[in-house]
Each structure stands twice: as C-alpha cells, then as structure tokens.
Amino acid sequence: MPAEARSSFISGIRDVCQLIVSCQLPVGSCRLAAPIRNAQSTIHNWHDAFLFDNNSELISAYKTVRDNLDELMMQLKIHKTKHCREHYYSTRNLDRQDVPLCDVERAARMIYLNKTCFNGLYRVNRKGHFNVPMGSYKNPKILNKDVLQAASAALHGVAIETRDFRSIIELGRPGDFFYFDPPYHPLSKTASFTGYTAGCFCDQDQRDLAQVFRKLTEKGCLCMLSNSHTSFILDLYKNFKMKIVEASRAINCEGTSRNKIQEIVVLNY
C-alpha cells in the first residue's frame, strides 16, 4: 500500500495502522464497520465498508474529501496563502460567532486548524468550540494533494455516517468485522483527553462500549478494539483475548516526549 494511502489527511491522536498491523485481521468478513478516524488504515481490505463517528465536524470533512475534493483543495489553497497568526485565530473563532459555512468551507476549516494547531490536537470545550492554540510550524502541510487524492479514492463508495456507537448493535450481521477506536482511558488523572466532542467520554461510556462489544460478539460479529493499558480497561475485557502492543503516540502535550507506550488490542476471534 502506498504511503499516501496509509496516511490520514487528519492528524490523529494515534496511528491506528500501528495497532492493526500487529494483529491478524479476520479472513472472510463480509463487511467492515469502523470509526472514521484514520479510516484509510482499515478500509483497503474491504469492498463493503461503513465508517461512523459521533463527531459531525469530522464526518463532514470525510464526506467532503470523498465527494467534493477539487472545491476543498481550492479552499485549502486559500487558507495556505493567508496562513498567519491572525488568520488562524479568526478562522478558529468562526464557531464562536456562529458564522454559517457550507460543507466545503466547514471541512477546509477543520483541516486547516488541524494542520496548524498545537501538536495537531483536536479538542473542543463543552460548548463545542475548538480551543487549541496555534502551533509553531515553519511550513505546515495545509494542502497535501497526494494524501487528499489518495483519501478520496479510498473513500469512494464507502458509507459514512454520524452515529453513536451504542446504535451500532442493530447493524451487526454474523461475520461482519467491527473495529472500535474510542478516546483512550486516561493513564492517570492528569493525562485525561476526552475533549474530542462537546461531551466527554467518561468511564460509563467505556462500560457501554464494552457492552456493545459483548452484544456484537453474541451476534456472531468479529470485533477488535484498541485502548490504553489500564486496570480499568483490562477488567472490562477480561473475558476476551487481549494483545499488548507498543505504539507511538502521535500527539503529546510535550512535543519532545513521544516515547512508545503499551496499549492493548481486544479481540473476540
């Protein structure tokens, strides 16, 4: 697979491909259902894929890359030309001002902020406002045509939908493969990152996800889930096969501290 096809046009908290290549994917699955983040790491092996997330901004961006790539690249070119501190913060503040944006403008805004903010972090406050400060980059890749074109080709014909993971159970059929990549359970009280959407992803959400994992298993679906290596997560999935893997965190509050850490992959096959 070419490097462009493996690369996401959105900077992710972690590289899903690191985890997937460490675990053998099921053979003969009829359909794939997976979270949209870093989707290019997974969808190349399936002809019938369904990608979901409860982050509507992210879903809009992926749909735009799939359906309106040329218009999107024109908007990103404008952002690239205008990029400076003033442009960054004026663009970031659009959600606070309730400025109406079309889907292409909305997607371009998200990608621009993602590529120029501190450490590529995606975080919103409780009002849903993006609140990450500008990063220090000499030449941020605001418009990466090769990656965007590869992403658009990979997403062709793929169903993309805003959906909460709790509603996924109804979609499951025997033999389907489900991959879950939730906000990771914090390694410590000070290491929590749950600001992926306006509502945090708390311990009860982790419990609900484990229940979804069990329900899909009962339906004969093949499931894989990645999460942090904590006693809480280990207890939730203690009845399933688990692999411990080392993965590099792509985003860290300290740019110089990005060592490999232990994560787990939960499997029901």
Which descriptors apply to this entry?
269 residues, alpha/beta, 2 domains, seven-stranded mixed sheet, 15% strand
The description of the largest β-sheet is: 7 strands, mixed
Structural class: alpha/beta
- Count of the separate structural domains: 2
As a percent range, the share of helical residues equals: 25-40%
What can you tell me about this protein's structure?
It contains nine helices and seven strands. It is of the alpha/beta class. The chain folds into two domains: 165 residues, Rossmann fold (3-Layer(aba) Sandwich), CATH 3.40.50; 90 residues, Adenine-specific Methyltransferase, Domain 2 (Adenine-specific Methyltransferase, domain 2), CATH 1.10.1020. About 2% of the residues have low confidence.
Q: What is the topology?
A:
Elements: H1 3-6, H2 16-20, E1 32-35, E2 49-53, H3 56-67, H4 69-82, H5 85-92, H6 103-116, H7 145-155, E3 159-162, E4 177-180, H8 203-218, E5 222-228, H9 231-236, E6 241-248, E7 260-267
Parallel strand pairs: 1-2, 1-4, 2-3, 4-5
Antiparallel strand pairs: 5-7, 6-7
Helix pairs in contact: 3-6, 3-7, 4-6
Quick recap of the structure?
The chain is α/β, with parallel strands linked by helices. It has helices at residues 3-6, 16-20, 56-67, 69-82, 85-92, 103-116, 145-155, 203-218, 231-236; strands at 32-35, 49-53, 159-162, 177-180, 222-228, 241-248, 260-267. Strands 3-2-1-4-5-7-6 form a seven-stranded mixed sheet, sandwiched between helices.
